[in-house]
Design goal:
With 401 residues, the protein is an alpha/beta fold. The chain has 19 helices and 13 strands. Helices cover 43% and strands 16% of the residues. It is globular.
Length: 401
């Protein structure tokens, strides 16, 4: 059986943030079909130290692995990007050691397919190798959205969008398949890239329904006297920072008596300044976000800039929580608005829907139960990742064996 080389811009373990959740489940599924070698970056030494646990979790199915702490600063990467005419997204991740490891693995092992997770990793794949590219999201479109909001960084965002779009087109042109997290992202990419013979498709996210289970024995987070509204996410991620700031300023004032909990690691100074005793709680990292989900009267996802599928929404729905999401946060989720969750756009609309749910516990419980059922029906990881075997060249009969 042939080997598979997986490249990831962040070590796929533990699966405790959106990108790691997807990359971990993909890595685990690929390891079912052959020896998998891994080349990945890590945010810091603590992140890199998760490699032994990852190896143990794969139970002997991981071959060689290279996990490298990414040390290139943004200023140095930006200077290099300007000189080389490349996107900053690439120069931030460029590494001679990573190039060397990939070249050696392809030379020493019978690798049939390179699976690259996130566009930055395509730069390490030689043209002779068979590539399956998991872009996940259309990153160039994200930078276009940043630029459209104006500000002093808008010219840099526009440059990044242009350069990254060109790189995405070139990568998709040589890939055997280009994957995206949703049908909407795949359709957006097709509309931007003229690939007459390219295979561009969605590989949908799932959710761990055994872990995110409302019946699980999870200690509940402390509840305030009034209603509790919860947002979960990585709190140094710009779209999340924007979302909670906008919600706190524009929506929460129209929901009297409620407490808003911002739950997630690495809150930026801007997020920390939102904290207000009895009204807004900024938790930072927590041992288990499920504790806050089970305590929540409802969960919000008020993102104004979003790409792909929001795992935070899937997880809240799996936990049987009523969710109020913006259209951007809902995009790509296979569920029925009004039945499985509430979708509302403006601040006034979100505030009104939140007040209505808080005032009608029976309706909130009905939506919460429908949300869990929808996750059970459509979002199991084994179902979502079933196409992977064919993408890496495993016949369906052999994959099912």
């Amino acid at each position: 059986m042939s080997d598979i080389l997986v490249l990831a811009h962040r070590i796929p373990f533990p699966p405790d943030r959106g990108d790691k959740i997807r990359s971990w489940h993909i890595l685990k599924e690929l390891a079912r079909h052959g020896t998998v070698h891994l080349a990945a970056f890590a945010d810091d030494e603590a992140d890199a130290a998760h490699l032994p646990a990852l190896r143990a979790a794969l139970d002997g199915r991981l071959g060689e692995a290279h996990v490298e702490v990414r040390r290139t600063g943004r200023a140095a990467a930006a200077a290099r990007a300007l000189v080389q005419g490349k996107p900053l997204s690439l120069t931030l991740f460029d590494s001679k050691a990573m190039h060397g490891f990939v070249a050696r693995i392809l030379s020493d092992h019978p690798v049939s397919t390179v699976f690259a997770f996130s566009g930055q990793m395509a730069q390490f794949v030689p043209k002779r190798a068979r590539l399956v590219m998991d872009f996940v999201d259309v990153d160039s479109a994200k930078f276009e959205a940043y630029a459209a909001r104006g500000g002093v960084l808008a010219p840099l965002y526009r440059r990044e969008a242009r350069r990254l779009a060109a790189f995405e087109r070139a990568t998709a042109a040589r890939a055997s398949a280009s994957l995206f997290v949703s049908d909407a992202e795949a359709a957006l990419f097709r509309s931007r890239v003229d690939l007459r013979h390219g295979d561009v498709r969605a590989l949908h996210n799932g959710v761990d329904l055994d872990f995110y289970d409302p019946a699980a024995a999870v200690p509940a987070a402390p509840r305030p006297d009034g209603p509790l509204i919860v947002f979960t996410g990585q709190m140094d991620y710009a779209p999340n920072v924007d979302a909670v700031g906008w919600f706190a300023e524009e929506v929460l004032p129209a929901v009297p008596g409620a407490t808003f909990a911002i739950v997630g690691r690495n809150p930026t100074p801007a997020v920390q300044r939102l904290a207000e005793p009895g009204r807004i709680e900024v938790t930072g990292a927590v041992p288990d976000t499920r504790s806050w989900l089970v305590s929540a009267d409802l969960v919000v996802a008020p993102l104004r800039i979003a790409r792909g599928v929001q795992n935070k929404v899937l997880e809240a729905m799996a936990m049987g929580r009523p969710v109020v999401a913006s259209p951007a946060a809902f995009e790509g989720i296979d569920a029925a608005p009004g039945r499985d969750l509430i979708v509302a756009e403006s601040a006034a609309e979100q505030a009104r829907e939140i007040r209505l749910l808080l005032a009608d516990p029976v309706r909130a419980a009905t939506i919460a139960a429908a949300a869990r059922r929808r996750m059970e029906d459509a979002y199991r990881w084994d179902v979502r990742l079933a196409p992977l075997a064919g993408l890496i060249g495993i016949p369906q009969r052999q994959a099912a064996a």
